[in-house]
Each structure stands twice: as structure tokens, then as C-alpha cells.
Amino acid sequence: MKKLDEFCIPFSNLKFGSNLFNFEINNSFFEAFDYSIYEGCELILQLDFRKENNLMDLQFHYQGITFTSCDRCLDTVSVDIKSNFKSILKFGHDFEQIINDDVVYLPYESYEYNIAQQFYEHFLLNFPKKVIHDNDLCNSKQIALMNKYSNRPENVEFDHRWSKLKDFKTRNKNIKK
Predict the structure, then answer these.
(1) What is the C-alpha separation between 175 and 119, in angstroms, rounded?
(2) H/E element holding 161?
(3) Is residue 166 included in any domain, yes or no?
(4) CB 3.0 to 4.6 Å from 2: which of 32, 46, 74, 141, for a disulfide?
């Protein structure tokens, strides 16, 4: 992973209270992590960095559009993204950064914090797991090829053992009532 210096916030120089930051996120951000399933990306990240005496409250808000491959036809599909999350930075006696739920413990010597890794992980975990086109927008040629080479038999015989299990299931429902 490359270091993303533009996402490093020197909190020691910030005023107490709310400090607003805006970031534009594109494909180069995800390429820096050596993992990119996205063909393109245009996101706006707004960070409200609230500095207090003993802790810092980070409120992330992001929205935009991401382009990735459709899971059904492999054509490019656009996915609208809009989300927010919170995190708290606290100081601890340890010599390294510790992440515990939404609380990040920093060493007392820290004077800056890089939000790139935290945003990256949240984005990946909240990105839709299945991405497909809306109805009838998938590549019809690709769908036809998949149907042609799939090994599903067209004349599927019904297995009568399943009907006995269904009878058992309905009989149990009647008993419970």
C-alpha cells in the first residue's frame, strides 16, 4: 500500500471544535491499496473532524458513483453510493495505534492521523456484495451465451421424496396451531 499523504490530518495544528475537510476520491485511491475491483469511481468525502481536549470525533459523509462489473453479464454498471459513519480518536499509553470498534487509540506522541485506511475498510465492507444491472439492462448476448453453455437440464423430473417432506412440514404446522 502506498502512503496517501493527502488523507493525513495534522490534528495538533487544528482549532478546538469542528474542522471540515473535503476529499475527492477516484480510482487512484483504490489503486494505492493494490486492490481495485472498480473500473472507475467519483466520490466526495466530507469529514467533520471535531477536536476536544481528550478525544477527537470524526464524522465521515461520502457520496458519489462507482463503476464496476455486473455480476450477471460482466458489463460495466454504475452504483450510486451514499453513506456515513463515525469514529473516535483517543490517546492511550501504548506505543502503537489500536483500533477497538469505532474507537482508535493513538499514542500520546501522535500529532497526525491518516484517515485513508479507515475510509477504505468502511467503503469495502459497505459496498453491495451483489452488483447487477436493473431489469433488462444486462447484455443480452452474454446472457444468451450463459444459457447456452449452462448444464441445467430442461426436463427436470420431480423427486417424489420431497413431496413426502412437504406433507410432514404441513402436518407439523397444523399440530402447532
Answers:
(1) 52
(2) helix 160-176
(3) no
(4) 32
25 found inside a domain: yes
Task: Look at the chain and report how many structural domains it folds into.
Answer: 1
What per-residue confidence (pLDDT) applies to 16?
93
Helix, coil or strand: residue 130: coil
The DSSP string of 84-129 is: EEEEEEEEESSSS-EEETTEEEEETT---EE-HHHHHHHHHHHS-S
Residue range 43-72: mean pLDDT, rounded: 93
Q: Which one, of 73, 78, 74, 76, lies nearest residue 140 by Cα?
A: 73
Do the bridges between strand 8-9 and strand 17-25 make them parallel or antiparallel, or are there none, so unpaired?
unpaired
Kindly report, residue by residue over 121-134, the tens digit of the pLDDT: 999 999 999 998 88
Taking residue 55's Cβ as centre, other Cβ atoms within 10 Å add up to 14
Q: What is the domain extent for residue 22?
A: 15-126
3-state secondary structure of 52: coil
Give the closest residue to 76 by CA, choosing from 28, 117, 137.
137
